[in-house]
Write a structure and sequence with these properties.
Blueprint (H helix, E strand, L loop, with lengths): L17 H8 L7 H13 L3 H21 L4 E5 L9 H8 L4 E6 L2 H5 L11 E5 L5 H6 L1 H4 L9 E5 L11 H10 L6 E5 L9 H6 L12 H5 L39 E3 L39
Parallel strand pairs: 1-2, 1-4, 2-3, 4-5
Antiparallel strand pairs: 5-6
The chain binds S-adenosylmethionine.
The site of S-adenosylmethionine (SAM) has 22 residues, from helix 1 and helix 3.
Length: about 300
C-alpha cells in the first residue's frame, strides 16, 4: 500500500504507461516488458528519442535552476514521472535548501516509488491527481500543505501536455492553472512536436498505451503560453534552451521530443534580466524556418 492508499496490484502491467516508457528510455529499471517493447518501437520509429528524453531531463534541471535562482521557493511539478536522479527537489535544493515541492502524477506507479521523491526536510508532497482536473490539483490538501498560492510558484508541465487530446482542452487546463498563480510565478513547459519529421509511427506506439501521444506544432505549443511573456531564448528545442555547454551531436534532430522553452510569469513591470521580449534562435533544423525559436516570459502584472 502506498501513502496515498493505492495498492501496487492496481498498477496495470498489461499496457504500456507513459511514465514507465520514459523511465525505460532514460535507462531506468522501474518498467515492465510491455513498456520496454513500446520504448523499443518508439526508438525505431523516432531514432532520436533516447537523446531527446535525456535532453528533456537536462532542460528540466536547467529550468529549475533558473527559476529557483530567480528567487522562487515553491514548485508545483505536474506529471513528475518516476524518480530519476537528480530529481527536481535535489536540483532545487542545491540552490535553495528551503524549497517546497508538490509532485503530482496520475499514475499510481509514481506513488509506489514516491519515497525517492520525499525530501528529508518534509517540504515535499506526492499527490495522485490528474491534470485534466486542474482545479482539483490546486485545491488538493496535499498540494496546499506545501504550496502557498499567495507566493510565487514555479509550475512545471514538462513532457506531460502531449498526453492530453485536444478534446481534453489542454489550453483551458493551463489557463486554469495559470489563474491560480500569483505574480512572480513561472511556467516551465516542454512538449513533443512533429514539426521536424513525420512522427505518425511514434504516435501509433501509444495507441495501446494508457495515454495517447498528441504532437503539436510550434504554434499550438505557443498558445499554452498565453498570458505569459517568454524569457530568452523563447521557445526552443530543449537542448538549445540556455545550454550549459555545446549541445550534443544530433540535437537538431530532436523533433519527436521537441520540448519547448521555459518561461515565467511575473509582474511584467519588473525588469528582471532576460525577461522581456522574445528572440528566435537561428533556425537550422531539418525544416528551416520552423526550427528553434523560443520562449520565455514575463506576463502582465497580476495580483
Ligand atoms: C514523460 S513523463 C515526464 C516526467 C518529467 N516531467 C520529465 O519531463 O522528466 C510524463 C508524466 O506525465 C504523467 N501524466 C500523463 N498524463 C497525466 C495526467 N493526465 N495527469 C497527471 N499526470 C499525467 C505520466 O504518468 C508521466 O509520469
Amino acid at each position: 500500500m502506498t501513502q496515498n492508499g493505492f495498492r501496487a496490484e492496481e498498477i496495470d502491467t498489461s499496457r504500456p504507461h507513459p511514465a514507465r516508457i520514459y523511465d525505460y528510455l532514460l535507462g531506468g529499471k522501474d518498467n515492465y516488458q510491455v513498456d520496454r517493447e513500446a520504448g523499443d518501437q518508439l526508438a525505431y520509429a523516432a531514432p532520436e528519442v533516447r537523446i531527446g528524453v535525456r535532453a528533456n531531463r537536462a532542460f528540466l534541471q536547467r529550468a529549475v535552476r533558473h527559476v529557483v535562482g530567480s528567487g522562487v521557493r515553491q514548485i508545483l511539478d505536474i506529471g513528475t514521472g518516476l524518480p530519476t536522479s537528480p530529481n527536481v527537489h535535489e536540483t532545487a535544493q542545491e540552490i535553495a535548501p528551503d524549497i517546497r515541492i508538490a509532485y503530482v502524477d496520475n499514475d499510481p506507479i509514481v506513488n509506489t516509488y514516491a519515497n525517492a521523491l520525499l525530501s528529508p526536510s518534509g517540504a515535499t508532497s506526492i499527490v495522485l491527481a490528474d491534470v485534466r482536473d486542474p482545479r482539483a490539483v490546486v485545491e488538493h490538501p496535499d498540494v496546499r500543505r506545501v504550496i502557498d498560492f499567495d507566493q510565487p510558484v514555479a509550475l512545471l508541465l514538462v513532457a506531460i501536455l502531449h498526453f492530453l487530446t485536444d478534446a481534453e482542452q489542454p489550453e483551458q487546463v493551463v489557463a486554469t492553472l495559470r489563474d491560480a498563480l500569483p505574480a512572480g510565478s513561472f511556467l516551465v513547459l516542454s512538449h513533443a512536436t512533429g514539426d521536424f519529421a513525420d512522427r505518425s509511427d511514434a504516435q501509433a506506439v501509444y495507441k495501446n498505451a494508457t495515454a495517447t501521444l498528441n504532437l503539436r506544432s510550434k504554434a499550438g505549443v505557443e498558445r499554452f503560453f498565453d498570458g505569459f511573456e517568454l524569457i530568452e531564448p523563447g521557445l526552443a528545442q530543449v537542448p538549445f534552451w540556455r545550454p550549459d555547454a555545446t549541445p550534443p551531436p544530433k540535437s537538431r534532430e530532436i523533433g519527436f521530443l521537441w520540448r519547448r522553452g521555459a518561461q515565467d510569469r511575473l509582474s511584467g513591470r519588473v525588469g528582471r534580466a532576460g525577461r522581456a521580449g522574445r528572440a528566435g534562435l537561428p533556425a537550422r533544423g531539418p525544416r528551416p524556418g520552423r526550427g528553434a525559436d523560443t520562449a520565455a516570459v514575463a506576463p502582465p502584472g497580476r495580483g
